[in-house]
Every structure is written in C-alpha cells, then in structure tokens.
C-alpha cells in the first residue's frame, strides 16, 4: 500500500506567500538594480536546473551499474527530473535579461570593442 504526500492547505498558503514575496522582491530589484536582480535570477536558475538534471543523472548511473540498493530511492531523483519543464520555462524568462547580464548583447558595445567585433560571427 503506497501513500502519497498531500500537503496541508496551511503549508500551501505559506509556500504561495513565500513565492509571492520572492516575485515582489525580484520586481523591486528590476526597478532598483536590474543587473543585480538578473544576476541573482541567473544564479538561482543554474542551481535549480543543476538539481533538476542531477536526478536523471543519478537514475541513469544506478541503472547502468545495476545498483539494487538504490531501488527505494528512485522516486526522489525521478521527482527531481520532473521539474525539468519548469527549468525550461525559467530559462525562457532568463532570455529577457540577456541585455542586463551580457555585455556582448549590446550592438554598440560590440561595435566599440575590437575583440567582441572579432567574435561577433559566433
């Protein structure tokens, strides 16, 4: 008999409040210091994506090694891998911050810098 985890409504409200507060802080950061807000977003995105990729990697390695000891643990890395579509959505949002994050995304900066101009074909 397998029991699934059902979060309480109180926990869901608390998590929704934390997510809302995070969105408000990010939007305030966009108004006050967009470079810092986008760099923080990039760090969080990388952390989230690396965790999401670590689950399928662990599953693949245990499958290749025929590690029977990992059978009870397989649900956790599978759940980690299930967050990859969310990572894709967060990556699409990250494209909006390209100009704040990368100097080479500005045509004027590329035109003024000889090294960037040389690399512009890439």
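^ structure tokens above, recovered residues below v
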């Amino acid at each position: 008999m397998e029991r699934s985890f059902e979060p309480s409504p109180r926990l869901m409200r608390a998590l929704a409040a934390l997510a809302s507060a995070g969105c408000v802080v990010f939007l305030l950061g966009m108004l006050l210091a967009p470079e810092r807000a986008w760099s923080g977003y990039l760090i969080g995105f990388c952390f989230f994506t690396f965790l999401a990729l670590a689950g399928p990697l662990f599953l693949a390695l245990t499958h290749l090694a025929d590690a029977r000891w990992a059978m009870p643990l397989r649900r956790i890395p599978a759940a980690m891998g299930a967050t990859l579509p969310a990572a894709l959505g967060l990556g699409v949002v990250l494209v909006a911050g390209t100009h704040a994050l990368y100097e080479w995304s500005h045509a004027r900066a590329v035109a003024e810098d000889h090294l960037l101009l040389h690399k512009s074909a890439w």
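The chain is about 75% helix and 0% strand.
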